[in-house]
Give the backbone structure.
Amino acid sequence: MSYDIAIIGAGVVGSLIARKLSKYDIKIALIEKCNDVAMGTSKANSAIVHAGFDALPGTLKADLNVKGTKLMGYLCEELGVPFKNIGSLVIAFNEEEMETLTSLLKRGEENNVPGLKIIGQDRLHEMEPNISKRALGALWAKTASIVCPYELTLAAAECAVINGCELYRNFEVSQIDFDNEQFTVKAKTGEEINAKYVINAAGIYSDFIASLIGDESIELVARKGEYLLMDKNLGGVVNHVIFQCPTKMGKGVLVTPTVDGNILTGPSAKDIEGKDDISTTSDELNMVRTYTSYSIPNVKLNSVITSFAGIRAHSTKNDFIIEPSKVNPHFINVAGIESPGLSAAPAIAEYVEEIMLDTMGKLPKKVKWQRTRPEPVRFRELSTVERRELIEKNPAYGQIVCRCETVTEGEIIDACHSTIPALDLDGIKRRTRAGMGRCQSGFCGPKVAEIISRELKEDLLDVTKFGRKSNVVVGKTK
């Protein structure tokens, strides 16, 4: 197949770029090596839309963070993605850290972050009653928010597909050739596509993808962060995103509500050799517990329902790398997108759009471009009357499969037949929240596997957790 543009990487950045470019009358391929979109950093991060006071003035990080944060609320409303503007607090425990807050305030003002101010101890404890009594003050940023990053990624990718973009899953790029002003992008399986332009949004693997055309300019460090997710019974323990003062390794351990009502704390920060190690360790998680208790001493750490890890693509240049490759100007690198990459993602998409228009020339726009995507049913959020009406139309919505999150069989069936169908248990989990609750799929997992088998017409033995060889059932006992 031949395309005008091939985008490698269906994370939040690649998917939003695909959506942005899908308004033009061109052929686009969105390529993902995994079984679903949002399988890398986009599914395992802090889910914070940062205000923008942390990045150094004059960097792409600073500029695109502030612009992206301004765009995010509107974008999420347009795509039907959970989003809450709750603000953030960076807390200080001593006079030296209070001086750090002053520096962050000045930096934020240079970055044109609106509504920043330093608050004292009394106001801080009024806003956050459970905060440590040792906290002397905080930097308040009212524009900070929380979002669901994997739902944002899915919604953007679905919107792109609705507008004609073609999604390739399980397409692990192993070779890129260039001849006669056209790239040939080859997968390990032997499958290949052709494209006039390639956008490299491959996350932690963007250095490897660039190297396939002989571009060795990108140097990335894999920085792993481990998190703890707590039960919804802790809802209300914090009202805002709570940061500690940043370090050279990042923004430190935070405590935040999620858009779904849980409490998330983390991440740790450890540079690792490989790119795929998302295991968790007792040492790192204990460190997260310790730092969490500094901020919120009375948090019930026995309410943890799961832990997970994500890997950030830290650039040795300490900034985003978004530019045409010096090896081939038809190859656009979008690399080193670590925090605040999620916050900046909407603005990164616009920035890449401008690069493509400069590179390709004026592009014709489609007569009809659909800005939205069909918003999924969220049974748990409906009123009793709305639930009754839905069940009357389709009895499958009356069958609760996941009791922890109140997810129905109807929602799971919808996910199996959506614009970008869920192909595995984790795909269902990200689309519906079935398995996200207290029991972590302990009760609903087998039923979800049966529904996937039935709806996708595949043998139950072939149903996987996340694709490849992660089979859920390995044999029959009788």
About this structure: The mean pLDDT is 96. The first strand starts at residue 2 and ends at 8. The CA atoms of residues 413 and 455 lie 7 Å apart. The chain has three domains: 2-42+150-219+317-360, 84-145+222-313, 379-462.
